[in-house]
Design goal:
mainly alpha, 3 strands, about 40% helix, globular
Length: about 190
């Protein structure tokens, strides 16, 4: 199968085929959100989508298939307890680094474990967050995720369920992308 897009990394660390995935989803094109979306000014939704499409709104994950099972991108998008939310995905990654892969406690644990070789490159959760400039989605000790909307465990509905909750999700998502954009810009300046 020919791969049309992606990044192939080959070095002494190994060979990794990576694909990008969006961190922020506006859910504005989901029909079940029509009532919520219609209560928010159209220009706010358009601005949210525009910011979500900036570089700070994307991340790389392994794009190769292991044992004919879903990639991380696919699993996080289709899992009903994640629904493509990156903050919840990052919580699963944090749990993985803490040794929790049980699917009841960590919905993506088994999927992440399939890509053990990739995640071991970063040594620990702090290393992963610092490499991908995700510090603004964690606390200073890398022990807790700063969720976009209140989270009480993977039994909570993952998508915003009211207009107020959607506005909070939108506000926190935008803040995160803007902060990450600045981190990426600063990193780029320091590389020169």
């Amino acid at each position: 199968m020919k791969k049309e897009y992606g990044l192939l990394h080959c070095s002494e660390l190994g060979e990794y085929y990576l694909t990008s995935d969006s961190i922020i989803h506006t859910y504005s094109r989901h029909t079940e959100y029509a009532l919520i979306i219609n209560e928010i000014p159209k220009e706010d939704i358009e601005n949210f989508f525009k910011i979500a499409c900036q570089i700070g709104g994307y991340i790389l994950f392994p794009g190769y298939i292991v044992n004919k099972k879903q990639t991380i991108n696919g699993a996080r998008g289709f899992h009903p307890r994640i629904c493509d939310r990156f903050d919840l995905t990052l919580e699963c990654i944090r749990l993985y680094y803490n040794g929790t892969i049980n699917k009841e406690l960590n919905p993506l644990g088994e999927v992440i474990k399939r890509y053990d070789d990739f995640f071991k490159l970063f040594t620990d959760f702090k290393g992963y967050c610092e490499f991908f400039l995700l510090q603004d989605l964690t606390n200073d000790l890398y022990s807790k995720i700063e969720f976009f909307i209140p989270f009480t465990g993977f039994i909570t509905k993952p998508r915003p369920s009211s207009t107020d909750e959607y506005k909070l999700y939108m506000e926190n998502s935008i803040k995160f992308v803007e902060k990450r954009n600045k981190r990426i810009l600063e990193y780029n300046k320091n590389m020169k």
